Each structure stands twice: as structure tokens, then as C-alpha cells.
């Protein structure tokens, strides 16, 4: 037990600090469990069992199905209908955001839903003269609330169902079983309704307008002091050199955004462009570096752009966009210098937002994390490639992205079948979801080579890595020990109070580590506690599942919060201010709902 507790403590520290990527942490813990088999009782076969777990395979299949829906443009179509309905009415915008996101997140994995809708909602806000901050946090929260509506709404639900089934098979007296497709939909509907009501009344008032509605990206990122135009006068040593030779030294921390010659503007690629007398160079750099380069090269300061329109007055499509880094992106763990991002997309990064902090210079060596946001300048064709790449979430919609809209009927029918077959007890969810993947390939919704790029492999490795940790908790008796410790609170609390304690504990744990990891750790403990006090184990498992699926209090508690963190301009404390009361409200609603629908007695 001590060894398992030590490994759990190690995992918690690594998850919370992100010293290693969460999937690497999970696999490391899995390896340690097998290496320490005499103490953890986890054999190699049990250690790798997470890769063969129905939960892991189902999540993998659901990620592929979600990509199939994405490729048809169905969610974007719903988003545009929502935008046309909402117009410039802020209440309609908020209601439409929640009303579309929630139900869709119940049927399609909620993480990709938010990734798709970030640009739709950002544009809706700007076009409707509303601060994006007012809509993007509700978008993320609504997706979490919607994920509680069905078994397939989140990977957390699928994993919890699988753990419950395992516990039920090992200890039949617990009365646990795999969740049905709509088994907890009635509770999910109550949670969604209460959460939505909170967001449109109290929540929207608590969300600050971090990004003003009429502010462009140059102003939002306060880049005016970092953008400058310099003229190359006669006699400057830069004349005759290429841009790359003159200013391409990484130590200078200078980006040449444009070269303007007699009114004609040249953008990337500029490295091989020769500098002539009277050329104007548009630079991104700090004031100190600018002064040094002007003195050394005899350049003349000619002011600088103050807004996006000043940067590219002739462009119809924006060439400045925010790019959010999702999990699974090749940029995660890399730096801008090591990732070759600039070279791949002929793009200049003007600013870098990480965990609410904006960095405007010397960001080449910063290690990129999930949810970090880059302010990028690139030609329109490069931006289109960024939009079409699963490695990025571009916070602006582009009209020239092609979707397989003709395949929408096939995609809808396949997802309906995937949902209906398990609901009618015809096939298990793992079989129906895999059958859905095959159907999407056969009908042309997805191409075969897209199967592998559709999967967020870090999520799969996370699941596979943490599942044996839950097994070790059970087999060593650690779960029973913790369960008995929590169950001792029943001497001063009613059963409903103990259930509420589990909800709160899971919510707090999920705020600092992965929601899937918290489910793996808490469900065996909750089941043991329920058994100790002769309570309904299913009620306790459900409380843990719902608490892990609704992590509102921190931006790192749930992936969707990270997706909106940068584009919304939020601070860490904003999530606690808005999400804290919501989490507390839903803790009461969920616990009472469980008691009403299923009872808490044994």
C-alpha cells in the first residue's frame, strides 16, 4: 500500500506541475507499477491491460467519429445558423452558444466540439460587438455540462463506466455495472439546465471583459511598443544584403514582417530579399534592440503600425490570427526555435500567451504547453493550411476551407447508429463505436489515412497508463483503506453528506490533475466507502463521475478550458470567480439529484 501511495503521490505532483507531459507521466507510472510488481501486485499483463481496455478502445473510436463529423462541417453549419439567429443581441448570443454546444457535446466528444466552435464563437462575438470573453468561457462550461447528458459525451464517462463494470465483476455485492447510454441522462439534463441558467444570469455578470469587443489583435496584445518601421538610408551597411543576412541572427530577436518599396509591400518569405536604399522594413522587436540596430546600421525611425489595418490595409482576409495549441499538437513540449513552425508555415509569431501571461519578445526558447496561444502573421494560404491542420485551433473562421458537406447525412446516420445500438442492448458501445469507424470509411466520410491523425494519442496513452494504477489501488487494499477512512465521516455526517464529500474531493482533485486520472483514483475509493457504510455504490460512482466531468474552477482542470484561455484573454482567477460558485451549486444539485433518482441507501 505504501508503494502504491508513493506512486500516486508522484503521479499527482507530476500531473499538477506538468514537469512531464501528462501522457508521459501516465506511462511512467505504468512502467513503475510493473517494475515494482512484488509490492504493487501489477504483473506485466495487468500493467498493459489499459491498452486493451474497452474504455481506451471506445475513446479511440469516438475521437475518430468526432473527426468524421468535423470533416463534414456539420458543427460549423450549426454554428453559423446560431450566429445568424443571435445577431448582435448579447443575450441571444449567449443562449445560442450554450443551446448549441450542450446538446451537441452529449452526442459528439465535447473536446473537439469546443475546438471547432472557438473560431465560430470568436467571430460571432466580434461581429456582434460583444467581448469574446463573455462567450468563450460559457462555451467551455456548456460543453462540460453537455458531456454529462450521455455515456459518450466525455472520455471520463466511458472510463468511469468501464471501471464500474470491473468493480462489479470482482465484487458482485456492490451491484455495479457498466453505464447504459442514457442511464444518467435525466440527472445530466437537470445539471445542464441548472448550469445553463446560472451562466445566463449570474455567470455572465461575473465574467470580466478581458478582450474589448472593438479592440483588434495589435491593441489586445499591446504590441504597439514592439512594432516599428525603419527606413534604410543611403550609406547604410544593410544595402545589398539579404534580409536573412542582415537581420536573421536569432540572438537579435528581430522579425522582419514586411519590406515596403515605393508603396509595394513584400511579406514572407523575405529571408532572400535584397535590401535596397530607401526600403522601409517593418520590424517586431523590443525598443532596446531597435535602438541598438538603428545605431549600428544607420537606420531611420519612421513610426510604426498601431492597429491591424495599419499592418495590412489592403488585405481582405485577416493575416493576423490567434493560434491555440491543443493536446496532441507537434508543438507541445517544443519551443518555437526547435519546432520549425515558422519555416513550415512561413509565419511570424508576434506574441505568445501562456497561462494568461503575454510575452512579446524573447519567446523563442519558451517551452510550449497545451492551451498556449500564438499571435501569428502569415500569408492567407499558410493560414488556410493552419486551419486544416489538427495540430492547431485557429481562432477565426476562413471561408475557403473545404468540408465534405455532402456526407452529412451519412455521418449523422452513423453516429445515430453508434448511440442507438448500445442503448437498445443490441451491441456493446465498444463494438458499435468501432463499427461506426468502419462505416465512416466505407461511406467516404473519412479517408483511411485520416484514422491515425484523428486520434489524440496523448489521451489514449493517458488512459492506458492510469488504468493499472486503479487496479493497484484495489488489489493492494489501498482503495479499501482510503474508503474506510472517508467512511468514518459517517459517524458525524449522514450518507448524503459523505456523498457530497466525495463530490467535492473529486472536483478539487480534477482541478489540478487530469479528469480521467481523478476518476481512476476516486471510483475504487468511493465504492469501498459505500460498501463500508452500506450505501448505494452506484450513487457514489456517479457522484465521482459527474464531479470529474465538470471541472470549472481552474483553466487546467479540463482541456476545453485551456482552448478558450488564450482567445478569451482570461486570467487564472477568472475561472475560480465564475466556476467556483457553479461548482458549489452543482455539487448540491448533483448530490440531491442522485439521491432523488437512485437513492443513497444500500
Automatic annotation (TrEMBL):
GO terms for biological process: potassium ion transport. It comes from the Archaea. It is a multi-pass membrane protein. The keyword Repeat applies. Keywords: Membrane, Repeat, Transmembrane, Transmembrane helix, Transport. The chain crosses the membrane at residues 50-70, 135-154, 174-200, 410-443, 455-473, 480-502, 508-530, 537-558, 578-600. It is found in: Membrane. Signal peptide: none annotated. Residues 215-299, 308-392 form the RCK C-terminal domain. This is Transport protein.
Amino acid at each position: 500500500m505504501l508503494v502504491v501511495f508513493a506512486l500516486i503521490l508522484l503521479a499527482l505532483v507530476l500531473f499538477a506541475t506538468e514537469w512531464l507531459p501528462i501522457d508521459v507521466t501516465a506511462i511512467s507510472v505504468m512502467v513503475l507499477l510493473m517494475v515494482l510488481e512484488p509490492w504493487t501486485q501489477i504483473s506485466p499483463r495487468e500493467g498493459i491491460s489499459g491498452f486493451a481496455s474497452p474504455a481506451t478502445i471506445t475513446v479511440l473510436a469516438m475521437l475518430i467519429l468526432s473527426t468524421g463529423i468535423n470533416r463534414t462541417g456539420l458543427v460549423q453549419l450549426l454554428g453559423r445558423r446560431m450566429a445568424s439567429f443571435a445577431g448582435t443581441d448579447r443575450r441571444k448570443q449567449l443562449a445560442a452558444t450554450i443551446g448549441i454546444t450542450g446538446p451537441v457535446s452529449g452526442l459528439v466528444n465535447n473536446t473537439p466540439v469546443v475546438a471547432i466552435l472557438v473560431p465560430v464563437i470568436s467571430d460571432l462575438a466580434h461581429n456582434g460587438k460583444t467581448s469574446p470573453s463573455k462567450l468563450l468561457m460559457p462555451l467551455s462550461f456548456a460543453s462540460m455540462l453537455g458531456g454529462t447528458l450521455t455515456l459518450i459525451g466525455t472520455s471520463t464517462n466511458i472510463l468511469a463506466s468501464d471501471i464500474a463494470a470491473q468493480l462489479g465483476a470482482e465484487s458482485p455485492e456492490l451491484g455495479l455495472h457498466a453505464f447504459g447510454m442514457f442511464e444518467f441522462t435525466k440527472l445530466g439534463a437537470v445539471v445542464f439546465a441548472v448550469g445553463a441558467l446560472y451562466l445566463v444570469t449570474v455567470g455572465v455578470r461575473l465574467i470580466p471583459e478581458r478582450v474589448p469587443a472593438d479592440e483588434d489583435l495589435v491593441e489586445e496584445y499591446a504590441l504597439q511598443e514592439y512594432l516599428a518601421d525603419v527606413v534604410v538610408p543611403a550609406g547604410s551597411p544593410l544595402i545589398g544584403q539579404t534580409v536573412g543576412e542582415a537581420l536573421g541572427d536569432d540572438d537579435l530577436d528581430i522579425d522582419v514582417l514586411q519590406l515596403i518599396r515605393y508603396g509595394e509591400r513584400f511579406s514572407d518569405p523575405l529571408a532572400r530579399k535584397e535590401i535596397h536604399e530607401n526600403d522601409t522594413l517593418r520590424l517586431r522587436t523590443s525598443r532596446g534592440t531597435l535602438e541598438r540596430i538603428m545605431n549600428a546600421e544607420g537606420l531611420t525611425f519612421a513610426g510604426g503600425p498601431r492597429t491591424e489595418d495599419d499592418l495590412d490595409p489592403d488585405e481582405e482576409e485577416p493575416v493576423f490570427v490567434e493560434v491555440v495549441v491543443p493536446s496532441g499538437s507537434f508543438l507541445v513540449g517544443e519551443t518555437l526555435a526547435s519546432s520549425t513552425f515558422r519555416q513550415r508555415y512561413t509565419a511570424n509569431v508576434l506574441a505568445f500567451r501562456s497561462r494568461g501571461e503575454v510575452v512579446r519578445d524573447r519567446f523563442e526558447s519558451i517551452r510550449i504547453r497545451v492551451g498556449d496561444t500564438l499571435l501569428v502573421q502569415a500569408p492567407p494560404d499558410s493560414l488556410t493550411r493552419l486551419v486544416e491542420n489538427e495540430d492547431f485551433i485557429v481562432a477565426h473562421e476562413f471561408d475557403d476551407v473545404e468540408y465534405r458537406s455532402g456526407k452529412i447525412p451519412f455521418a449523422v446516420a452513423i453516429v445515430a447508429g453508434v448511440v442507438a445500438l448500445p442503448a437498445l442492448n443490441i451491441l456493446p458501445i465498444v463494438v458499435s463505436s468501432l463499427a461506426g469507424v468502419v462505416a465512416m470509411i466505407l461511406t467516404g466520410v473519412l479517408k483511411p489515412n485520416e484514422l491515425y491523425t484523428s486520434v489524440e494519442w496523448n489521451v489514449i496513452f493517458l488512459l492506458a497508463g492510469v488504468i493499472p494504477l486503479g487496479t493497484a489501488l484495489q488489489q493492494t487494499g489501498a482503495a479499501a483503506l482510503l474508503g474506510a477512512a472517508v467512511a468514518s465521516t459517517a459517524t458525524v455526517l449522514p450518507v448524503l453528506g459523505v456523498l457530497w464529500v466525495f463530490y467535492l474531493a473529486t472536483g478539487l482533485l480534477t482541478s489540478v490533475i487530469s479528469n480521467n486520472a481523478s476518476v481512476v483514483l476516486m471510483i475504487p475509493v468511493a465504492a469501498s466507502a459505500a460498501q463500508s457504510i452500506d450505501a448505494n455504490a452506484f450513487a457514489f460512482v456517479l457522484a465521482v463521475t459527474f464531479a470529474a466531468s465538470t471541472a470549472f474552477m481552474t483553466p487546467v482542470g479540463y482541456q476545453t478550458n485551456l482552448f478558450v484561455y488564450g482567445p478569451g484573454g482570461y486570467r487564472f482567477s477568472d475561472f475560480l470567480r465564475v466556476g467556483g460558485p457553479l461548482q458549489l451549486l452543482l455539487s448540491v444539485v448533483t448530490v440531491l439529484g442522485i439521491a432523488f433518482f437512485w437513492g443513497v441507501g444500500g
